[in-house]
From TrEMBL:
Pathway: Energy metabolism; oxidative phosphorylation. GO terms for biological process: mitochondrial electron transport, cytochrome c to oxygen. This is Cytochrome c oxidase subunit 6, mitochondrial. SUPFAM superfamilies: Cytochrome c oxidase subunit E. It comes from Aspergillus tanneri.
Length: 158
């Protein structure tokens, strides 16, 4: 064995950084670089919410925003995503928003989603009377678009 290869083996065996080595964490568990975490003190125990843009939105602004979103729908995914977002709030959408959603469902040719709009209304309202008022308001558009209710499609389940 030559002296160069002995030197390589000897230097590999002794690692001066081994005495002060910090334990390595998997990359998926590391949240921020250490330098950033050391230089910036974190006094909060909660995370900062960046999606607070709609916190103080009035019902009219909510309706206008979703009408605009439903008017710009181009495919079924966008329609269903907007419907999920619209019905996720603790309120029942206005008739104008629902008519825009029904027109968008017709535009993307999605009959099941149009039927589900009415199921969403039925789930969101507090009483059957409110549901009937929504049905009366949307009756003309419903007949124009040819959207049947679930109660009409499956009368034995209702």
């Amino acid at each position: 064995m030559s002296s160069i290869s002995l030197f390589r083996v000897a230097t590999r065996a002794v690692r001066p950084s081994g005495f002060i080595r910090t334990p390595q964490l998997p990359r998926c568990r590391v949240q921020a670089p250490i330098a950033v975490a050391i230089n910036r003190p974190n006094f909060s125990t909660t995370t900062k919410r960046l999606s607070g843009q709609h916190e103080d939105e009035t019902y009219e602004e909510f309706s206008a925003r979703f009408e605009k979103e439903f008017d710009s729908v181009q495919d079924v995914f966008e329609l269903q995503r907007n419907l999920n977002n619209c019905f996720a709030y603790d309120l029942v959408p206005s008739v104008e928003v629902l008519s825009a959603a029904l027109k968008a469902a017709r535009r993307v040719n999605d009959f099941p989603t149009a039927v589900r709009v009415f199921e969403g209304i039925k789930a969101k309202v507090e009483t059957q009377e409110q549901y009937k008022q929504y049905l009366e308001s949307l009756e003309g558009l419903r007949q124009e678009l040819g959207v049947a209710l679930r109660e009409e499609l499956y009368p034995e389940e209702a």
